[in-house]
Design a protein that fits this description.
2 strands; mainly alpha; globular
């Protein structure tokens, strides 16, 4: 962790990605409308940070994303579930693992392809999707562990129905969007870094 916090390049990337996260949170740019659903892209800077700088930076960026979510829930709640995100166990803790999971998926898949150019694209696509699914799965796990009864009362449906509907609509859409955006940015960044 010390090496990330002492490295000017890493700190600059963290600062830029935090700024992008805040912009996505406070503007409509953070959600892409896809017909009847909307795919959030708020977690993508966290995934990109992890793939470019490493898992520790991804962990830090995930925690910062969590704090942005917590502040959003405190200051501008939009949905009936937003007040539940004032609890750091729901807003911060699950998001700390987005970048970590994405990084290790990226590294693991990249090793399978052994320096093949297609391997970088495939690994970034899968890392983007894995980071997005980690976000959704862990947030819902914490909602279930901490607030299951309240969520059922607020939504008016059984928790398993809620999870099924979210994972068959938003979660898949967000994973696909996250995979595409992550791959485009990280592959371009890596190509640029190689040429320098």
């Amino acid at each position: 962790m010390k090496s990330v916090l002492r490295n000017t390049r890493s700190m600059t990337i963290l600062a830029v990605m935090l700024a992008i996260t805040i912009i996505l949170d406070v503007t409509p740019l953070g959600a892409i409308p896809l017909g009847s659903i909307s795919a959030t892209i708020l977690h993508i800077p966290t995934i990109i940070t992890a793939l470019i700088v490493g898992p520790v930076a991804g962990l830090i960026m995930g925690a910062l994303l969590g704090f942005v979510t917590l502040i959003h829930a405190l200051t501008r709640p939009v949905t009936p579930l937003d007040p539940l995100f004032i609890n750091p166990l729901v807003s911060v803790l699950p998001r700390m693992f987005i970048g970590v999971v994405a990084y290790y998926v990226y590294v693991g898949v990249k090793k399978l392809f052994r320096k093949d150019r297609a391997g970088e694209t495939v690994s970034t696509l899968l890392a983007g999707a894995a980071g997005s699914l980690t976000n959704t799965a862990l947030v819902f796990l914490m909602l279930y562990l901490v607030y299951a009864q309240r969520v059922v009362e607020i939504v008016g449906a059984a928790f398993n129905v809620i999870i099924l509907s979210v994972f068959t609509t938003n979660a898949i859409a967000e994973a696909v969007v996250s995979a595409i955006i992550t791959a485009a940015i990280v592959v371009a960044f890596n190509n640029y870094s190689r040429k320098k």
